[in-house]
Amino acid sequence: MNPRDTDPPRAEPALETRRDTGGAAPARRQWPTLLAVSAAQLLVVLDGTIVNIALPSAQSALGMSDASRQWAITAYALAFGGLLLIGGRVSGALGHRRTFIIGLAGFAAASALGGAAVNPGTLFGARALQGVFAAVLAPAGLSLLSTTFTEPRERGRAFGVFAAVGASGSALGLVAGGLLTEYVSWRGCLYINVPVALLALLGATRVPPDHPCRGDGPLDVAGALLSAAGFAAMVYAFNEAEPLGWGSPRVLTLLTGSGLLLAAFAAVETRARRPLLPMRMLLHRARCGALISIGLMFVAMFGFYLFMSYYTQTVLGYSPVQAGLTLMINALAALIGSTLIAGTLHGRLTPAALILPGLIAAASGMLILTRLTPHSAHVLPLYLAPALVLTGLGLGCVIPPTAALATADTRRDDIGAASAAYNASQQLGAALGTALLNTIAASATASSLTSARHTTPSSASVHGYTTALTVAFGILLAAACIAAPLTTTRRANRHGSREP
């Protein structure tokens, strides 16, 4: 293969209309887009954690069985993860602004349906619908951001704000979930999406319309079916691995089936006239590095959030609200990292100069927590606060440059697919991290209880948490080693990123 075949295609002239940033009129068009996309990003990220806090109350109110309650989480994850690539292509075909508005309206309606649910089936169906609309909303929003902000300085600020919302949304979801469940109702955790969606819709009305990318050739139906089935099987396998174990026949069957389906998908995409995910996009070195970096970052961070929630509540005795407020340290650090550091330095430094220190900072935060013992004193100031600050800064520094690299210099009709691939990396990383690290923690806890004399449940739990966080530390270091040669770039382009 000619090395030039792996170069990113140049942005098409249709994008040039967004680049007139010399006057006030373009600014009036740009910042409503940022407001709308940030609100939509908050919706998608918030919903990944807020329902977890409300689930015990919802289970009691609706009479869910212990075996079925997981579907309130799994239904959303399967629809979202399985349909993301299709959502990216739909966004390009219908127009990013139109798809964005459809996604917002559908997500709000599905949230209202879930909040009004009177039985488990209605709640599960509403959660699946939320996932469907999130799968078109997320890539459409990132595509709008990428095509609206093209000047390096403004692009850096915009991606910094976008990243701040994404990085802090999970922690905010835990806080909001605890407050709403404790003082309002579990239904409030779903109804809260409606006003946020309306705010985003208000901003979307001021976003300039874009033109659909019709493309050549028929829709890639085979690729759509294979990608949806393959990604859904993978997400479901990760969810099932948590209660059943990675050696379970069901989990192994799902993982094998997922691998075969995705291999068939890749084969179809290389021959399709209008592929759902053009393989040339994954052959570009810097884009591939961005997808790997954010995927592995989410593997480590979602396990980290889970353990912080459990450790603060079961070992330290915090209430759900106190635990959520503790995680706000992480959210504030992510805000600083994404806006004041990554957003300000975008275009002035190579992406690797932000991604690599971000991964190492997050790894350092994990390392601090591996030193915890059941007898550690002054845990909040000596362990939790430094770890939360470092992981937050790291996450805030990684998201903006990886999002910019993943979407920079793509053809206009491929920007939706690039955005979908980026979101898919995040979702798969989050699902894998929660399942993998929770399994490691549970195994280490059980081993500690059976192998050591006079071990209390609390000390065994701490051992399980630190073992899993040691693995998370290793994952982040591996991510830095993989990302270093892939994201180290030299030549500046007009989007403020660098090309190999």
UniProtKB/TrEMBL annotation:
* Domain Major facilitator superfamily (MFS) profile as annotated: residue spans: 33-495
Region feature (Disordered) = 1-25
Q: Which UniProt keywords apply?
A: Antibiotic resistance, Cell membrane, Membrane, Transmembrane, Transmembrane helix, Transport
- Name where it's found: Cell membrane
Topology within the bilayer: Multi-pass membrane protein
- Enumerate the GO terms in the molecular function aspect: transmembrane transporter activity
One cellular component term (GO) for this entry is: plasma membrane
Main localization of the protein described in the UniProt heading: membrane
Q: Which residues cross the membrane?
A: 34-55, 67-87, 99-118, 124-146, 158-179, 185-205, 217-238, 250-268, 289-311, 323-345, 352-370, 382-407, 428-449, 469-488
Instruction: Locate the compositionally biased regions of type Basic and acidic residues.
Output: 1-21
Q: Which GO terms describe its biological process?
A: response to antibiotic
Query: Cross-referenced InterPro entries, in alphabetical order?
Result: MFS, MFS_dom, MFS_trans_sf
In Swiss-Prot or TrEMBL terms, this protein is called Multidrug MFS transporter
Q: Which organism is it from?
A: Streptomyces rapamycinicus (strain ATCC 29253 / DSM 41530 / NRRL 5491 / AYB-994) (Streptomyces hygroscopicus (strain ATCC 29253))
